[in-house]
Specification:
four-stranded antiparallel β-sheet, 383 residues
């Protein structure tokens, strides 16, 4: 997984990244400084929350979860653990002569062997993106902490020359993914089965839901299921009261994300509109599956609206979340043809099949660090 310091600032498959300073999750918005400020605010809130609430209960909950799943210690040395000594470097910088040569020479100079590389230039915008997957088994400084430190120092020396934003992840430390779900189970089952078969290379330490409908799924797969219902407010509740209840529930979600050391969040048909603040703190590492071919039919009940409109194709869209509903950077999309013979139920079934496949591809690409975010678009080295 990506080398990280905290949930809000750990590395992800995001392109608009801050200059290397120990932080990682990039920003899909035009203003990377605004995202960094949001990350610092979230980190501060987490520290304050830990001090105010106390850590005993949370520590017990984390220990119980890790013990149940026999997870490795969370503070295990990233580069010194078991598994392949491979890493992935993501680069975003102004387009310039010598960028590829400089990065390749730097890795060679450290004793690394490049296994795979892909790149994309946008001459009209003066941008350059690159993904480099390499083996550092024969790194001159070894394959442990010293190798990490020396390797990242060497990368930074190149980055400073080319005004480069970069992040690095290590193959022997799996990303930890939380699944948020409501009542629909098709995406949840698909994710869990693909993860169990090794198709999605990650750990799934918990499932979070605003309903207890799917708690049995967690039991089937031996994954802790956390039911965090929305507050039962009276019909006359004000908008401020509703927002306060939403923020309180989201604070519980964020507490769990911290407790379980989560790197990636997937909204597997989680049918709650998240607050702007939550989206801004988690936008570059949270993936949503929308049951429509965006930008058409955003929001709720898209299949019913598509049926009323008489469309001839329906689709599904996997995208990163932003404060703008269903308008985040798109990772993957797919469509299927519809005829006049298809009922709403037929369209829903066809759509669910698309949702599963589109979401699984998007998650795989993100987990393999193949998605780079720039402003509100993505460069996907997965096709």
């Amino acid at each position: 997984m990506m080398k990280k310091m905290s949930l809000s600032s750990s590395s992800s498959s995001s392109l608009a990244r801050p200059q290397r300073s120990g932080v990682g999750f990039g920003s899909p918005s035009p203003s990377s400084s605004r995202r960094r400020d949001a990350a610092r605010v979230f980190a501060g809130r987490r520290r304050n929350r830990a001090a105010a609430v106390g850590s005993k209960e949370r520590q017990e909950r984390k220990a119980a979860s890790l013990g149940a799943q026999q997870q490795p210690k969370l503070d295990k040395l990233v580069a010194g653990g078991d598994g392949p000594k491979e890493a992935t470097l993501l680069i975003d910088c102004p387009d310039a002569k010598g960028v590829v040569a400089a990065s390749a020479s730097m890795l060679y100079g450290q004793g690394c062997n490049i296994l795979e590389t892909d790149q994309h230039a946008q001459p009209d915008a003066g941008l350059f993106f690159q993904r480099v997957h390499f083996d550092y088994t024969e790194c001159y400084l070894g394959s442990g902490e010293a190798a990490m430190t020396g390797l990242e120092a060497a990368i930074e020396s190149v980055a400073s020359r080319f005004d480069m934003k970069w992040s690095i992840s290590y193959a022997n430390k799996l990303k930890r993914m939380a699944v948020l779900v409501s009542k629909f189970d098709h995406c949840l089952y698909d994710i869990l089965l693909r993860q169990k078969s090794g198709e999605l290379r990650c750990d799934i330490p918990l499932i979070i839901s605003n309903h207890d409908t799917l708690s049995h799924v967690g039991e089937q797969f031996g994954i802790p299921f956390h039911h965090l219902p929305m507050a039962d407010l009276p019909p006359e509740a004000t908008a401020d009261q509703k927002m306060a209840a939403k923020l309180a529930q989201e604070a519980e979600i964020e507490g769990l994300l911290e407790d379980y050391d989560v790197d990636v969040v997937v909204l597997a048909r989680y049918m709650q509109v998240l607050s702007d603040e939550f989206c801004q703190r988690h936008e570059a590492h949270t993936i949503n599956i929308h049951h429509s071919f965006l930008p058409a039919f955003e929001g709720g009940r898209p299949y019913h609206r598509a049926y009323d409109r008489g469309v001839k194709i329906i689709g599904a869209t996997a995208h990163y979340i932003t404060a703008d509903l269903d308008a985040g950077p798109i990772i993957d999309q797919d469509v299927i043809r519809i005829s006049h013979r298809d009922s709403v139920a037929d369209m829903i079934q066809k759509g669910r099949n698309l949702e599963r496949s589109v979401l699984s591809r998007a998650l795989a690409w993100h987990l393999e660090d193949r998605v780079l975010i720039h402003n509100n678009k993505t460069v996907v080295f997965g096709y």
